[in-house]
Amino acid sequence: MNRHAIAVRDLSFAYPDGTLALDGVSFDAVHGESVAVVGANGAGKSTLLLHLNGLLTPQRGSVDVGGTPVARDTLPEIRRTVGMVFQDPDDQLFMPTVAEDVGFGPLNLGLPPEAVAARVASALQRVGAEHLAERPPYRLSGGEKRAVAIATVLAMEPDVLVMDEPSSGLDPRARRRLLGLLKGFDQTRVIATHDLDLAAELCTRTIVMAGGRVLADRPTADVFADDALLEAGGLERPLGMRSCPVCGTEPARSGTPQK
Q: In this structure, which topology does domain 6-241 adopt according to CATH?
């Protein structure tokens, strides 16, 4: 199987308090695909993402990444393959400087200092944050923290990027920069988001979840044109796909992700 492929089969997971967060979830993602996971709060999106790099392991069913099952004894390999960007960048930034944060993962892979430095420079350059290398993370803006958090993942050179609410808390300018950055990635991407306009711009497929189940897995434009489905998932059409409330003019954009 291609190292960039994901296969989830009948995945179920309940938290210790008995809350059933995932109930028989199945889907595939192939090399280079960008897949959005959407749904109301409590739909199971974040719990699903935590299974994709082994932060949670299946209680029932399976998760397979690049031919390797996600299990306790495969976690080192899975976490080299799957890079996860958390909803809160502060969960990923804990070193005295940005450069040390970005280099933390490669250093722990046992790479020599010159290789670590090269990865740090490359990752920061990709997210446009070279000038932040010596800055302490607590001195960064929300958009800068988001970019650096992504750089910490890119420095590990993963085959798959998993992102939980990547545009959360960003101002419009930082959000535009993030969109431009994500459009340039060629890794397989799975993005959980409430930002449906971001999903419409970035993702060719969208999975709609509710109550820990998959309601639909279809091309993104089809999902966001189905008002009954969106209602069932506790969602509304992205702003860019709504008709003008005054004149009824249809939106110019079709919802098809830009290349």
A: Rossmann fold (3.40.50)
Per-residue pLDDT of the chain (259 residues; tens, 9 = 90+): 466 799 999 999 999 999 999 999 999 999 889 999 999 999 999 999 999 999 999 999 999 998 899 999 999 899 889 999 998 898 889 999 999 999 999 998 889 999 999 999 999 998 889 999 999 999 999 889 988 999 999 999 999 999 999 888 888 888 888 888 888 888 899 999 999 999 999 999 999 999 999 999 999 999 999 999 999 999 988 877 665 555 565 555 444 554 4
Asked whether 124 and 130 are in contact (CB, 8 A), the reply is: yes
User: How far is residue 7's CA from residue 12's CA, in Å, rounded to a whole number?
Assistant: 14
Helix axes 172-183, 142-154, angle to 10 degrees: 20
What token pair was written down for 100? 């040390």
Strands 205-210 and 213-219: antiparallel
Count of alpha carbons within 13 angstroms of residue 167, beta-carbon side: 24
Residue 170 structure tokens: 């960003």
pTM of structure: 0.87
Contact between 68 and 79 under an 8 Å Cβ cutoff? The reply is: no
Query: CB atoms < 10 A from the CB of 213, how many?
Result: 16
Q: How many CA atoms lie within 13 A of 137 on its CB side?
A: 22
Q: What is the longest distance spanned by two Cα atoms in the chain?
A: 63
